[in-house]
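INTERNAL AUDIT FORM
Audit reference: QA-55
Scope: verify that the stored structure record matches its stored sequence.
Auditor: D.O.
Record contents follow.
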Amino acid sequence: MIRVFCDFDGTVCLQDVGEQFFRKFAGEIAEASTRHVLSGEITMQQWLTELCEAIPAMKREKFLKYVDQFSVDPHFAGFVRFCVDRDVSVKILTDGLDVYVERVLSNAGLCHVPFFANHAEFVEERLKASFPYTDAECSLCGSCKRNHMLNTSADEDIIVYIGDGYSDRCAVRYADFVFAKRQLIKHCQQQNITFFEFHHFGDVQDKLAEILQRKRIRHRQEAAMARREVFVQG
């Protein structure tokens, strides 16, 4: 079976919802904290915790109203239908917050698409983050995309990953086919990971259609080896 895993911020959603929200409401703290996480000085968990603590008191309704300005890639719904019609699994993996992912997908009529994210809720008008999908031995992500991919795939499955940036760096190592844009392109080039450049999900759909026409779809050797290493070490 072919299993497709998609990043959310900047990929399924046209904008990075989390980044824009924190920059607007956490100001200079958001910029400084983001520099620290990009340089590796703090973990993603620490970054999100710091940013949530920096947000002033806010009602959930105000937050959701802010989120309503964001929209998904206009080609994404069609891509999901394309995959469903061909028995291709689609899941969203994000290091963002479930509270806005759920809202954006619901607004687009796509709440049936499963996703994994960090959890957030409003407690007495303060945004609180928690991390139900961390990996005990890896602090790169709050919600471990690698684990989501491997735990929901079988050895014979072909893994497709679609992303654009920082939180996708780990996941692409384990994918047989990678679709990349923006910062993820540079990472794939640096790590010698074969990828297809895309601008929107229409591009991904066209290329995936070509792949599905092949008589035999092969695993990427380096990805298969990396997946085996995880289970051997575990």
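Auditor finding: record pair retrieved intact. The chain has two domains: 2-15+71-119+132-233, 19-67.
Action required: none
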